Amino acid sequence: MADAAVAAGFWVQAIALAVGGSRSYFEAMSHDHDHDNELDPFAARVRALETILTQKGLIDPAAVDVIVDTYETKIGPRNGAKVVAKAWVDPDFATWLKRDATAAIGSLGYTGRQGEHMQAVFNTADTHNLIVCTLCSCYPWSVLGLPPVWYKAPPYRSRAVIDPRGVLEEFGLTLPATTRIRVWDSTAELRYLVVPMRPKGTEDWSEERLAELVTRDAMIGTGLARETA
Amino acid sequence: MNRREANSRAAMLSAGVDAPVFAEPWQAEAFAMTVALHDKGLFSWSEWAEALSAEVKKPGAASDGHDYYEHWLAALEKVLSAKGVAGKGDVDALAAAWERAAHVTPHGKPILLENDPGPTEGRGGPTG
User: Fold this and answer.
1) Is residue A68 part of a domain?
2) How many Å lie between the alpha carbon of B69 and the closest alpha carbon of chain A?
3) Could you tell me where the DSSP H helices lie in A70-153?
4) Site from A6, A36, A64 to mutate, B interface, most B CB atoms within 10 angstroms
């Protein structure tokens, strides 16, 4: 617990430094006198692009707002958790998911808007799967939402392939030396979803209840499904 | 690697687990514009991944990933410039106009481009 708090503190500090380092949105927001606003250079450039693209009829600002709202509130790892829970309780669905993940996931209403294909990789007693995108940040958006910050950061992208066992240990996941770790490098066309192993003692659980055990990290492979209390 | 480095690397990887996906509103807008332009067929997602990859692989990328959307924005600008949609000069001028408009807008009021007072004497530069 204490470690987690320290880690979270570090992160907040890192963000604060990062934001404070450039001329700043937060600084502007924290002025309590009312003479002016400032747009930081990035925000101003985004507005400039938005103006040009709207004038050229390439984007509709209302549609852009809908996309933001969708990714902030509607698409997230709960989608993926439902896929995993269904695979745990329904062997036919699991087989379908193994054979054609794009179609099986699509049948639940989760389709990728970049036309990407999905592949589900199943953890077993002797194989653990881990996903990464060494190229940039390809991620199964339709089932997991947008990737966490660390997924997009250089240390994870470079080290997940070179030293997956070490990376997993940093996430607090120590696997037996006999467990094989397979790392799947995502691309723009092919994205992966890890199907973690079903926790013991959940034989009579409903799909809905099972989905609550499936964390985002379990579906990236940096964690396992939650154990039952 | 000493212990302190090891700790901070561990923190980088495992912390921020529930950090919001967008740290600032412009990041969400840059992201959504890209998705919208792809929907419109302006580029394929592979083309986009390639452009983004070129930016995030440049030396000097922050190891905590906080500058990810800065790279995203740079990639978007490059793609739009390459497609002849928005040249750097136009974006520079319009961004400056937006900054000036923001500067003269009182807090709590929406920032509108038409409030841009224009470049001051001597600073030059075209207006948007």
Assistant:
1) no
2) 9
3) 77-89, 91-99, 101-106, 141-144, 149-152
4) A64
The minimal CB distance from B91 to the residues A48, A58, A113 is found for A48
Domain containing residue A133: CATH number: 3.90.330.10
* Count of domains forming chain A: 2
A47 contacts on B by Cβ (under 8 Å) = 26, 94-95, 98, 111, 113
- B56–A145: do the CB atoms touch at under 8 Å? no
CA distance B118 to B120: 6
Q: How many residues does chain B have?
A: 128
The complex scores an ipTM of 0.80
Return the number of CB contacts < 8 Å for A and B: 227
CA angle A109, B17, B34 (to 5 degrees): 55
Q: Determine whether the interchain pair A59/B37 forms a contact, defined as Cβ–Cβ distance below 8 Å.
A: yes
> Catalytic positions of A, please?
133, 136-138
At a CB cut-off of 8 Å and minimum separation 6, what does B4 contact?
none
Kindly list the averaged pLDDT for each block of 10 residues, start to end, along chain A of length 229: 37 35 37 59 95 95 91 87 98 98 94 83 97 91 89 92 96 95 93 97 96 95 91
> Which tens digit of pLDDT belongs to each residue from B17-32?
455 678 888 999 999 9
Q: Which residues contact A219 (CB under 8 A, 6 or more apart)?
A: A77, A80, A81, A84, A143, A144, A193, A194, A195, A196
Kindly state whether B81 is in contact with chain A, defined as any CB-CB distance less than 8 angstroms.
Answer: no
| Range of the structural domain that residue A46 is part of | 2-59
